[in-house]
Amino acid sequence: MLAADFLVFSSILSAAWCQAGIKALYPKTLNATSGSCLVIPCQFNISKEKEVFLDRSPVATWLRGSLWSLYDTDNFTNAHRQLEPQMKMVGDLRKKNCTSVMMNLTSLHSDRYFFRLQSEGFSVRETKSVQINVSDSLAEPRVIVPVLREGEVGNLTCTVPAPCPSATPNVTWDPALGGNITQWTQLNADGTQSVQSILNFIPSLRHHELKVNCVSTHLRDREDKPLLSHKTVILNVEYPPKETQISLTGSVWLGNNLTLTCQSNANPSAAHRWFMKKEGFLTCAFLYCGP
C-alpha cells in the first residue's frame, strides 16, 4: 500500500513540475520598513532541457498577487505599473540565483509576489508566493538573557532583522553596564540577514532587577528622522547570602520563651538552620541552593 501511495504522490508531483516548469526557493514571508529596501533571497531550478534558455539574456520579475490577472493583458496599464515597487536583480540568473532587491518601499506595496523567469521563447512562473509586509514601524528586537550569577561573566544577546543591506540597523545597550559590546551582521538559514549585538559584562548585586534596554536605530532612504525600536529586560542575578542578621523577641530570662530570627539577603532565597557553636552561644548558619 505504501508503494502505491508513493507512486500516486510522485505522479502528482511530476504533474505539478510540468505545469509550473520552475521550482524557486525563497522565504514564505518577509518584513520590511517603509522608506527602505528589502532583499528577497532566491534560488531556482528548471528542467535540464530548459537550462539552455538561461544563456539567452534571461529576465526575472516579481508579479504582484493583487494584479495577477492583469499581467500580459492590454488592461495592465502604466497606472498599474506605478503600484509595483522598484526592483533590482542582484543574483546571477545564469547560475540560478534570483536574489532581488525591492527599493523605495511603502506600506502600499504589502502584497503577495510570484517569481517569473523569461527569455527568448521561454516564460515560466512559480506557483507559490512570498508575502511581503511593509510597516511604518520596526519590529521589536529579540533579547536572550542567560542565567546570571554574581562574579561570573554573562552575555546578553540582542538580534534585530536587517532586511535592507544599504540601511543596516545599529544596535545599542542602555545602560551598557560597563561591559564590552560586539556587533556584526549574520546570514540566517533562510538567506535573510540580521544584526546581532552581544553585551559582555560581570554581573553583581547592583545589577539585580535592573532594567536594560536593547535599542535598534534604523536609517531610512527618504526620511531624515530614523526609526527606533527597543526591548526592555529585567535582570535576575543569582548571588549568595549577604547581610546576615539575628534578632530576638522577648526578654532573656531563665525559663522564658525566646524567639530568635535569622535573616539574610540572597537570590535564590537561602534556607537557615541553628546550631550551638559554644556553650551559651547560638549561631545562625545558612544553606544556600545557588551556585
UniProtKB/TrEMBL annotation:
<feature type="domain" description="Ig-like">
    <location>
        <begin position="141"/>
        <end position="173"/>
    </location>
</feature>
<feature type="signal peptide">
    <location>
        <begin position="1"/>
        <end position="18"/>
    </location>
</feature>
<dbReference type="InterPro" id="IPR013783">
    <property type="entry name" value="Ig-like_fold"/>
</dbReference>
<dbReference type="InterPro" id="IPR036179">
    <property type="entry name" value="Ig-like_dom_sf"/>
</dbReference>
<protein>
    <recommendedName>
        <fullName>Ig-like domain-containing protein</fullName>
    </recommendedName>
</protein>
<keyword id="KW-0732">Signal</keyword>
<dbReference type="InterPro" id="IPR007110">
    <property type="entry name" value="Ig-like_dom"/>
</dbReference>
